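pasting for ref
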Amino acid sequence: MRVRLVLGLSILVAGLLPATAGAQTLISQRYYDAAGNPQAIANIAYVNAPSDPVWRTCTPECGDASPGHTIAPGPTPAGTVFEAQSTADGVVSTARTPAWQGQLTNTAPPVVHGDVRVGGVVWAEGGTWTGGWGDDVHGLRLLACPDATTTTCVPIGNPYLATTTSLPVHPAYVGWYLRAVDTDFGFSPASTAQAITVYPGSTTTSPLQTYAPTAVSGPVGPIPPPQTPTAGKVSGKLFVGQTIAALAGTWPDAPTGGSIATGLRACPTRKDSASCLLLTPIDKPTTSATFKIDPKLVGWYVGAVDNHLWPNPWGPLTTFGDGKLPVAGPTVVDGPLSTVPIGLGFRPRASLRKRAVQHGTHLTLGQLRCAARCVATVTVRRGKAVSTTSVVVTKKTRDVVVRAGAWLSRGNRAPLRVRVAFQGSSVTKTGAVLAPRAAA
């Protein structure tokens, strides 16, 4: 990538020069080998340059010319200057490096600063270096490592920063270790082409050492688990048509700049499961949420849910609004579900006939009455025969109708035992209903 960038830069500069300008020598990169010795790349900003540039080492007198784009002299005394020269159309162009300051050496490693806990803000401070070119570009990284000895870790936020940014510790890294990494890129356009964003939990890894001289801090950690937050609560009457509200809990490990999104969830039983639904979105900051109870939730249980939205550079990591409930964890905390299910909010009624009325293949056993939508379970028994039917009342009244079938009286004149129970209500109705005689 370094060579491609340099060639692209030289072509761009060549395009900006007048055709009669002759050659222009550019020292486009000054960097290091793994031991901290000098290296440099020169290019000619001239279309159809007749030859490669030549290098001379000056201490202070310049020595013999060495052709080529790259110079890598190995160990070099301080004070040495490297000169690149090219000729085109009779015009000589020369470029010189700054004086070499001696072998690049890290004299103090970088440091991890801040509160190393979930929600705590941390940042990296660069190390101390001597020697080199003197005008180097450094890349600071904060890495999260799964243990204290591994050499392959996950970068937090932007992997390469000229100056580090303060970042909150995400719960994804509980039990991990933090390291600060300071990489000396020398002076190079390539050093500004490293910026990508890596999100918590990413599998993108970054080695502790790179092709450029790198200093690494010792491991800091392990990061302890977050403190247990106080769960949110639900207020309001649990009846159809009523508006209930969720109030946010408290988060001891809330990071600076973070926020809470509070919502409501509903479950068909008093246990969280994959069948639970998210009633209100939790992808935007809010400390309360309201919901008007729908008749379809009669018999369900409700509870609050808090989603911890982390601050930039990550932004919200989870977006919910499609009815899918996120899994509870360090950033999502479920409040307790209600002890009673959602009720109707009105008293339904049921009446049973003494004698069933036959209408073709069906029997009418009675009538249901509800002020709004309700659901009743009708159980019919006679002897060992049992049938159960759910009846939805969407208007004010509805007949209780079952298929005649075996319920028609033949030799057995025993009455039908009928029980009606309404979902979301304690109202039940039981009685005996005589069935018509079957046709001979």
